[in-house]
Design a protein that fits this description.
alpha/beta; 1035 residues; 49% helix; 25 strands; seven-stranded mixed sheet; Rossmann fold; 12% strand; 5 domains; 39 helices; six-stranded parallel sheet
Length: 1035
């Protein structure tokens, strides 16, 4: 079967994009029956979540197709494949069974991947050619790398004369402008450009110039600024002197505009937009600058005044351009030096920032012949599927083109060409800031660009399968009516025509636009009250909190909503609530680490006591009594000695503290993920407590746990995080964003001004004054404004298309004195829309479309015999410790306990007695155990697995789960040592060392409750005490 070689699917929100991709993938995979064809298919998307979703959909579909009776969720896809492949139902079923088995048995060849993971494979393949160490490590933390590089660069002050002069001049200029003289932050901000693909093409010239040339150019720019400034003031002197000599006082001029204009140049700073964003030039040309009652002849003065005005404007525009560029010049000058420091760090530690992937591939791989790339990779792909193409960067696409070209132009063994499937939606392109280029997808759709010889087949996915009819109709209407505000025609057509979607059979939806008086003295509270009222309305219709999502543009808004609702007793999942730093247990553990370094610090002691103190009136007295004796309290009441923690690795020290204070007795996702971070830092930096705490302080605002699904809690997230998701109810408060808003915007512009030679581009701070600059800069500015318009429309489109049943928008009621609404804000667009529909009423604050119907929750079938485990890769026993002899331990009892701990650790790898020797050998080979000690630990393990009460559970007749996490619906993680499963019965086995403790039994009852909730019966709960004697206790 020959498929179209190059197919583009242009989708819209909820239009079945994933369904289309899965169908296209399975159509090719099933057509190549028996040829292991799936190995030649590569599907690429942009997030791990999207990868998992697509893999799950493919495997679930094949599994469903393999059944005698196909579940309703897969019947539509099954029918499509039967029709398009022209095969009988039985043949599709037969091929599906075969393909499913083939994929599962050869899962490593099931290539559904993120673009970064695929690029990582390419770079690994060409690591030698790229000069990378074969064992290089990918790092996501470019900021930490950048911070270290900037610190190293600044530390060279005093050793390199040119560098020293640049850094000192920059610090002085910062201070003169009342900005922070600490230049490290500015250098780090500019340094991020090194990892941003949007800046690569412009930085190429800068990176090749030596510092000396930069310094010469910088001084030349500064001299030119002073020269222009002097000339500009001189022209004002001439004009005002001329007016005095000719008896032209202020009253001669209309509203004194002209003399006041020239006087403005005696005070700095000068604002180009305020100086020239008016009608003065036009009035000078027509003579309207003079008062209409003037009796003197005007003509003899106009030529001189207009000439001076234009001459001064020309110098002022040039002054503004050079001054603007100069403000960014020193940090940009130092980028090459910063990059050199980064490369030295990368080489020393064998690091590669993920932000450099695309550039590296572009430099090395792109020009290689396709067969050579395949030969080096060991893979030959014939069919490509690229999802979310609107977010693909230019370099990512250019790097893929040679591979795709090879597939499209060559023939396989059966004489067929390969294929390419692109799926995307330009209206959902909201990642321009990280390199996404929607224009390249638009050019492919419009057939203005095609890098391949293959003919393009385009298909539009027109039907919305997500939202109710009322929500679809509102979005169709709203975006079509507001689209004329987009200045660029090709962007405008997206929302004029292609935004219109066909409705589905889902009815009973609601769109509610609600406005708040901007004059409200407590506007934030008005918003949080508005959200709370909507929650109550939805609750009355049967919607639970987990069916509702609050979308915001900024994290600050998420914090406002989350804080207010939490105070109302509403459980919330928000970016802040998922941060590790939001957990009191994590904060307490961090304070304990600080205490080991600073035992006399009262603030640290206070935080520790504040956690340990009883609630109520006794708390203050408790803290007061122990504030000067915190260490003694920890030792006497909790058997916790800070000196012991200090002598351990950070990971072991944290585990020691967790056990002593029972911080994870009932499981804690926050503690678990903190330990993951500790382990990661230790492995990469060989870190001590001080190094880890430095890492924590720099990352605590971003380290978090994944968002758990299915919890009875309200979700709050940013619009960018919500892309690709859907919710029964969406609430969008603070819908007042400015369309042209940009955070500290910068823009690269071409310049023909010889003062910048040899540079072809300069970086400017983007503002409205750029519209008055030379044509090449003005055009670049206007194009950037058009892109900013599209980005803003796209964010609004994503926000308004996530809802299934109900969409609620809360915005400011904001009108001008003459009753008009702004066309540059979201709330203005909404008000203008209502005005165009004839629905706006100055006294009305709520506008509804449709009626929200009662919610019918789907019945979820929970598998009775399935445990949702997450594999743990932590080692719970001693790590990296060679046990040389029993003389290390002071007593025979301590030796037995330590051997018991090792046995406990090794039992996590043992399912049957056959696993004992491989586990022991692994530790001997790694140097963690000596032969002598390993024999004693092996003997202990044998006595466990052969024990008369335990042998059955190590016989291989049970399905066993060793130290695998159970994530409960409440987000709490439990990790039983061993669960032995047979049919619907699960026996819990937990290992302990030391003395018996009633708390150990309580822990097993907790595990029992969790497993019973999952549908298991618990016939036995067993405690196994590991020591010289194996003690088995049935609970």
């Amino acid at each position: 079967m020959q498929v179209p070689t190059f197919h583009i699917y242009h989708s819209s929100a909820g239009s079945g994009k994933t369904f289309t991709l899965v169908k296209s993938y399975l159509k090719i995979a099933l057509s190549q029956h028996g040829k292991k064809g799936f190995r030649k298919l590569l599907a690429i998307t942009f997030t791990n979540k999207a990868v998992n979703e697509m893999k799950e959909r493919i495997l679930r579909s094949l599994s469903d197709f393999s059944l005698d009776e196909i579940p309703s969720r897969s019947t539509a896809l099954f029918s499509c494949l039967c029709e398009e492949l022209v095969l009988s139902e039985q043949e599709i079923k037969r091929r599906s069974r075969f393909l499913l088995k083939d994929i599962l048995h050869n899962y490593a060849f099931f290539d559904v991947s993120t673009i970064d993971k695929f690029n990582h494979r390419l770079i690994r393949t060409f690591s030698k050619d790229l000069g990378l160490a074969h064992n290089f490590e990918v790092t996501l933390d470019a900021d930490a790398l950048l911070e270290e590089a900037v610190d190293k660069l600044i530390s060279k002050t005093g050793t390199d004369p040119v560098l020293t002069e640049l850094l000192l001049d920059f610090a002085i200029e910062q201070a003169e402008e009342d900005r922070n003289w600490d230049i490290s932050r500015d250098l780090q901000n500019f340094g991020r450009f090194l990892f941003n693909e949007n800046h690569n093409v412009f930085l190429s010239d800068l990176m090749t110039l030596p510092l000396e040339e930069f310094q010469r150019l910088r001084k030349h720019l500064r001299q030119e600024v002073f020269k222009l400034k002097k000339e500009i003031v001189s022209i004002s002197d001439q004009v005002l002197e001329y007016l005095g000599n000719h008896d032209l006082d202020d009253s001669v001029f209309s509203r004194k505009t002209l003399p006041n204009h020239f006087r403005k140049f005696y005070a700095v700073p000068w604002d180009l937009q305020k100086l020239y964003g008016n009608q003065l030039e036009s009035n000078l040309q027509t003579g309207a600058v003079f008062n209409s009652k003037m009796t003197l002849p005007k003509e003899k003065h106009l030529d001189f005044l207009l000439e001076c005005y234009l001459e001064q404007k020309q110098r002022m525009v040039r002054y503004a351009l050079i001054s603007n560029a100069y403000g960014n010049f020193v940090p940009l000058t130092l980028l090459a030096s910063i990059n050199q420091e980064i490369e030295e760090i990368e080489q020393k530690r064998s690091l590669l920032p993920i932000g450099k992937f695309n550039q590296l591939i572009s430099e090395q791989v792109r020009d290689q012949p396709t067969p050579f790339i395949y030969e080096r990779m060991g893979e030959i792909y014939r069919h490509y599927f690229i999802d979310e193409f609107q977010d693909t960067s230019q370099l990512q696409w250019e790097n893929l083109i040679p591979l795709v070209q090879g597939a499209l132009s060559g023939l396989d063994d059966s004489g067929q060409t390969g294929s390419l499937f692109l799926v995307g939606d330009v209206k959902q392109a909201i990642y321009r800031w990280r390199g996404g280029r929607a224009e390249q997808f638009l050019n492919l759709i419009n057939l203005t660009q095609n890098p391949f010889d293959a003919e393009v087949t385009r298909s539009a996915l027109l039907k919305n399968y997500r939202s109710s009819e009322e929500i679809i109709a509102f979005n169709n209407d709203f975006f079509k009516l507001t689209s004329p505000l987009l200045q660029q025609q090709e962007f405008r057509s997206l929302f004029e025509e292609e935004v219109v979607q066909e409705v589905n059979d889902r009815k009973g939806g609601l769109v509610s636009l609600r406005f708040l008086e901007k004059t409200d003295p407590d506007l934030e509270k008005a918003y949080t009250d508005g959200v709370f009222n909507i929650l109550e309305e939805c609750s009355q219709k049967g919607f639970g909190l987990k069916e509702i999502c609050v979308l915001v543009r900024r994290k600050k808004e998420a914090t406002i909503i989350a804080k207010a609702l939490t105070m109302q007793g509403i459980p919330v999942i928000s970016p802040e609530s998922l941060l590790l730093a939001s957990s009191p247990k994590v904060q307490f553990l961090i304070q304990l680490l600080y205490f080991t370094l600073f035992p006399t610090d009262l603030a640290t002691g206070f935080e520790i006591l504040n956690y340990l103190a009883p609630e109520g009136d006794e708390k203050h007295e408790f803290i007061k009594a122990h504030l000067n004796a915190v260490r003694q309290l920890l030792i006497s009441n909790y058997s916790f000695d800070p000196e012991t923690l200090e002598g351990l690795s950070v990971y072991e020290g944290c585990t020691y503290a967790i056990n002593k204070f029972q911080l994870a007795d009932q499981g804690s996702a926050y503690i678990t993920f903190l330990l993951d971070e500790v382990l990661s830092v230790e492995r990469s930096k060989d870190a001590g407590i001080d190094t880890f705490l430095e890492h924590w302080e720099s990352k605590k605002d971003s380290l978090g746990i994944p968002s758990p699904e299915g919890l009875h809690a309200l979700t709050i997230m940013t619009v960018h995080k919500a892309k690709g998701l859907e919710f029964p109810i969406v609430i969008y408060p603070f819908a007042n964003s400015r369309i042209y808003h940009d955070v500290k915007p910068k823009i690269w512009v071409p310049t023909a001004d010889e003062v910048f030679e040899p540079l072809l581009y300069v970086m400017l701070n983007k503002n409205a004054s750029l519209s008055l600059f030379p044509d090449e800069i003005r055009v670049a500015y206007e194009e950037e404004q058009c892109r900013l318009e599209l980005d803003s429309f796209n964010v609004l489109y994503v926000a308004l298309t996530r809802a299934i049943n109900g969409l609620y928008v809360l915005a400011n009621k904001e009108l001008t004195k003459d009753g008009h609404a702004s066309q540059k804000t979201y709330n203005g667009l909404l008000i203008n829309y209502l005005m165009q529909k004839g629905r706006w009423n100055d006294t009305q604050l709520q506008y509804d479309v449709g009626t929200l119907m009662p919610y019918e929750k789907e019945s979820l079938q929970v598998p009775e015999k399935e445990i949702n485990f997450t594999y743990s890769q932590h080692e719970h026993g001693p790590r990296n410790t060679v046990v040389n002899s029993d003389m290390i331990w002071e007593t025979k009892q301590q030796i037995a306990i330590e051997h018991g701990r090792w046995a406990h650790q090794l039992l996590s790898e043992i399912h049957t007695s056959a696993d004992i020797d491989p586990a022991i050998s692994k530790r001997i080979n790694s140097g963690e155990l000596t032969n002598k000690t390993s024999k004693r630990i092996r003997d202990l393990l044998v006595r466990v697995v052969d024990h008369k009460d335990l042998a059955a559970y190590y016989s291989g007749k049970f399905q066993t789960k060793n130290e695998q996490d159970i994530l409960t619906k409440n987000g709490v993680i439990f990790r039983p040592d061993r669960i032995a499963i047979k049919e619907n019965e699960a026996t819990i086995i937990d290992y302990k060392t030391g003395k018996t403790n009633p708390e150990h039994e309580k822990q097993l009852y907790v595990y029992q409750a969790v497993l019973e909730e999952m549908g298991y019966q618990i016939p036995h709960k067993i405690l196994v005490y590991l020591g010289e004697e194996i003690k088995v206790k049935f609970i």
